[in-house]
Write a structure and sequence with these properties.
Length: 290
């Protein structure tokens, strides 16, 4: 595989990090921490059905810039406690608040992909005193497109019910502009997470946000976007299967200090497919005085 798409392990191993289970309320949470302990906290949040390896190509650049980077698995996902109840946005927000409290973090920058961006925006609107800058990356939360919701639901649950090579590969390839970026290691990593006992049932509760009624009551309102008072950089990509770039532009325009950036030649994971460009966007944005 091309050096453009290095391995997950190579990405993480280029900097010192800890990987541990942290108890946050009832959730035993898998957390990766890297970078200087006295650096500003930067929390990285993955998407629906994802896991912290989503950010393997970003941690080193962000720690090199001086940030204390925290990547974690959402409730119900990967190495965090599985769920027996539907998880809506309030659950993820409560968990993030608990994680910050548990780690002794007063304020943090929030960078989230897809569901992670959805959580970042709602958290920033609800807890502005705990939030520095936010970077929603191909964020969910303002669209309810039936064809996209059906695709996510069907591909994700099929892979959870039968985490075969073919099903997991198909789920991952849907995310990418270039299928070559779906490495053998990434497939193996997701298969390992999806093969954990009980994950298939947990996935059904994670995927409740693809139900039209449940999704509607969790959407980001214009009032919430207006309540994000701090600087926000909405990142979208040229080939995002979840929706057009205009969705991200509209979100940015509704936040008082929002701005927009487009990443070319990337799908739903620009932080993976165009890591170098993504990392520079994030580091430059965080370094600005506001």
């Amino acid at each position: 595989m091309s050096a453009i798409y290095p391995s997950v392990w190579l990405g993480f191993s280029q900097t010192s990090f800890t990987l541990e289970q942290v108890q946050v309320g009832k959730w035993s949470t898998r957390v990766l921490t890297a970078g200087p302990a006295d650096g500003e906290a930067l929390v990285l949040m993955h998407g629906t059905g994802g896991h912290l390896e989503t950010y393997a190509h970003n941690v080193k650049a962000l720690t090199d810039a001086g940030y204390r980077v925290i990547a974690y698995d959402f409730p119900g996902h990967a190495g965090t406690t599985h769920t027996a109840e539907d998880l809506e946005l309030s659950h993820y927000i409560e968990h993030l608040l608990g994680l910050l409290d548990t780690l002794g973090i007063e304020k943090a920058h929030l960078s989230g992909e897809s569901l992670g961006g959805w959580v970042a925006i709602k958290f920033a609107a609800q807890y502005p005193d705990r939030t520095l800058k936010i970077i929603p990356n191909t964020p969910g939360g303002t669209m309810a497109r039936p064809e996209v919701m059906h695709k996510i639901q069907s591909l994700s649950q099929a892979a959870a019910d039968d985490p075969s090579y073919e099903r997991v590969k198909a789920r991952l390839e849907w995310l990418m502009a270039d299928p070559a970026t779906v490495t053998e290691e990434l497939i193996a990593t997701r298969r390992a997470h999806y093969s954990r006992p009980g994950y298939a049932d947990s996935a059904r509760h994670i995927l409740c946000l693809q139900d039209p009624e449940i999704r509607r009551r969790n959407l980001i309102s214009d009032e919430e976007l207006a309540a994000v008072k701090g600087p926000a950089l909405v990142i979208w990509s040229s080939d995002d299967p979840s929706g057009p770039a205009k969705a991200g532009l509209d979100m940015a325009e509704k936040m008082p200090q929002g701005r927009f950036a487009l990443v070319e030649n990337a799908g739903h994971w620009p932080q993976w497919e165009q890591a170098e460009f993504f990392n520079k966007l994030v580091v430059d944005f965080l370094a600005e005085d506001n």
